[in-house]
């Protein structure tokens, strides 16, 4: 159920996407492969880690979004990022 809610929030935020440097398109739906790891504390998949690395330039934008802030700042999100070797920027 939580995974469904997460995907719904991510999908709804598709309209909030914006490009950043390095031709990365900020699209929170790209992180849907991490939903299981973030919501259940399961180990992240290789696909999740790849998307985290790709979307890292967008993390500050996601942290500013009230609908995503709780997911980005959660303990499980931090554990997933650490497991993937993706530092979370200070914004």
UniProtKB/TrEMBL annotation:
InterPro entries: Bifun_inhib/LTP/seed_sf, Bifunc_inhib/LTP/seed_store, nsLTP2. SUPFAM superfamilies: Bifunctional inhibitor/lipid-transfer protein/seed storage 2S albumin. One of its GO terms (molecular function) is lipid binding. One of its GO terms (biological process) is lipid transport. Residues 26-91 form the Bifunctional inhibitor/plant lipid transfer protein/seed storage helical domain. The keyword Transport applies. It comes from the Eukaryota. Residues 1-23 form the signal peptide. SMART domains: AAI. Gene3D superfamilies: Plant lipid-transfer and hydrophobic proteins. Keywords: Lipid-binding, Signal, Transport. Pfam families: LTP_2 (PF14368). PANTHER family: BIFUNCTIONAL INHIBITOR/LIPID-TRANSFER PROTEIN/SEED STORAGE 2S ALBUMIN SUPERFAMILY PROTEIN, BIFUNCTIONAL INHIBITOR_LIPID-TRANSFER PROTEIN_SEED STORAGE 2S ALBUMIN SUPERFAMILY PROTEIN. Belongs to the plant LTP family. B11E subfamily. This is Nonspecific lipid-transfer protein.
């Amino acid at each position: 159920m939580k995974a469904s809610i997460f995907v719904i929030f991510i999908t709804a935020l598709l309209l909030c996407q914006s490009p950043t440097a390095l031709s990365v398109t900020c699209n929170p739906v790209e992180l849907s492969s991490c939903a299981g790891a973030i919501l259940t504390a399961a180990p992240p998949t290789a696909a999740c880690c790849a998307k985290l690395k790709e979307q890292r330039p967008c993390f500050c934008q996601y942290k500013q979004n009230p609908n995503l802030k709780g997911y980005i700042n959660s303990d499980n999100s931090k554990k997933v990022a650490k497991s993937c070797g993706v530092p979370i920027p200070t914004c």
